[in-house]
Write a structure and sequence with these properties.
This protein is mainly beta. The chain has a single domain, classed as Beta Barrel (Porin), CATH 2.40.160. 10% of the residues lie in helices and 62% in strands. It contains one helix and ten strands; from the N terminus they run H-E-E-E-E-E-E-E-E-E-E. Strands 1-2-3-4-5-6-7-10 form an eight-stranded antiparallel beta barrel. The protein has a two-stranded antiparallel sheet with strand order 8-9. The two termini are 37 Å apart.
């Protein structure tokens, strides 16, 4: 009898806990660049895209936790880098349907226009954003991602016509995102 009651209780509790969880999809536009630690180095940015999935977990009060898995094309004008990004945002709804969010992001390099040699395979970043959601599940959000670890893993050769090696270069991704989505 006890095992049956335990099973019924766990089933009921699990159903209630996950009834508030929302799954969703999102996609949008990236405007990205790499911020180098070299004086005068300011490459032109790149426009790319992102798409992926999300899960929204309600927490206490007006707070939610939203992990995502996103494919994201970022980089500079002269070269793109494709990432599998996993941001985990804490969202605070300060007005009906409007939220701010912040959290960490793990990014894994999956491809690059000129190959992945010389790039770190995994990076950490901070994510900060603002969003709006309708009661029907449609979302619009904007986000800024600031790399905390360098995307560059080794010395690089710069083709300046004379071709010379530069050591100690580091570069951090900076990405602005504008996206739309749907939660179901």
């Amino acid at each position: 009898m006890i095992p049956k009651l335990t099973f019924i209780f766990l089933f009921f509790f699990t159903s209630m806990a996950f009834s508030q969880v929302n799954f969703g999809i999102k996609a949008g536009l990236n405007v990205s660049n790499i911020d180098y630690n070299v004086s005068g180095a300011s490459p032109e940015g790149r426009t790319g895209y992102f798409f992926g999935t999300l899960v929204d977990f309600p927490l206490a009060g007006d707070f939610h936790l939203q992990p995502e898995i996103l494919y994201s094309r970022e980089g500079i004008k002269d070269g793109s880098v494709d990432f599998l990004n996993v941001p985990v945002s804490l969202k605070w709804y300060f007005a009906e349907g409007i939220h701010v969010n912040a959290g960490p992001q793990l990014g894994v390099v999956i491809d690059a226009e000129d190959g992945t040699n010389g790039l770190n395979t995994a990076m950490l970043a901070g994510v900060f954003g603002l969003g709006f959601e309708t009661s029907e599940g449609f979302t619009v959000d904007t986000r800024y991602t600031m790399g905390a670890t360098s995307v560059i893993d080794r010395d690089i050769m710069v083709d300046s016509g004379q071709g010379y090696n530069i050591s100690g270069i580091q570069g951090w991704t900076r990405t602005f995102q504008l996206g739309i989505g749907y939660k179901f």
